[in-house]
Amino acid sequence: MNFVSFEGKVVLITGAGNGLGKSHALMFARLGARVVVNDYGTTAKGEGADKSPADAVVDEIKSLGGEAVANADSVEDGARLVETAMDAFGRIDIVVNNAGFLRDTSFHKMSESDWFDIINVHLNGAFMVNRAAWPLLREQNFGRIVNTASAAGIYGNFGQVNYSSAKLALHGMTQALAIEGQKRNILVNTVAPAAASRLTDTVISREQTAALRPEYVSPLVGYLCSEESSQSGGLFEAGAGWFGKLRWERSRGAALKGEITPDDIAKNIDAISDFSDATHPRNIAEAFAPFGEAMGAAVAAR
Ligand code: NAD
Question: Between 71 and which of 84, 109, 112, 278 could a Cys-Cys bridge form, CB atoms 3.0 to 4.6 Å apart?
């Protein structure tokens, strides 16, 4: 008997016909969830549409004795995905936003469609799915959402201005949704995975492929979506069996007085950027504390 179980839960996983999403789907099904396997069936560059990847994963889950239904709509039609969950299983508890593709190119060559197609599938797709599921999660006072980000979003990466932007924006969505979901037991987190898949085919070696199994990422997604988790608003990284969590770090900073000029910033830039006595603000209230102190000092000086 597993401690983490999804008996009675319905999970919707987008882009679950391949790679990480497929691995998540099989894990959830093994742990008792009824699974909506969404996949639009595109190439790694987002071309075409094909129902067979979603159907194949549903067949695999059924052959293992699990329950699953396929949906081959695009995440941009998020409401249709949630409708499939409601029609098939009458509820939805967990959403894993995982669908996506790449359109890598250096910024000076990036077309408008390279930009908008990537924003649409990763960011707007997750918005459309989350927005459709949200009222149902609120109503039942239970929900778990995982948004899939990327190291490219956290750290930036050459040739991925579109993708980096979409992926970091997803964590912005996570952080704000986590606050809004708090009172309704809706936990929202971001996972930045590293795993061998169609998307990494051209950049990693065969040995790396063996070590970077998608199955090494899915357990974190599973835990974050469990009843047992109390994590929310978090940004996690996972790959090859390593798991970590990120947080914001802010320098102690420098409070300047009087009429402040760019020259004053120049004189103080080392102090402003000095992380030796750093803080880790966890929310807007903590982040605003130094402004409050500076305002207090300014008022006292008058
Ligand atoms: P993958 O190509 O194996 O799987 C992505 C799936 O999304 C595909 O099956 C594709 O058909 C589907 N898809 C594409 N557009 C869709 C749409 N509009 N609606 C529904 N489904 C759609 O890729 P993967 O590596 O498993 O990637 C999964 C997620 O993880 C992506 O969001 C990716 O950006 C992210 N990611 C992956 C890695 C990695 O190392 N593999 C690293 C960082 C982030």
Answer: 84
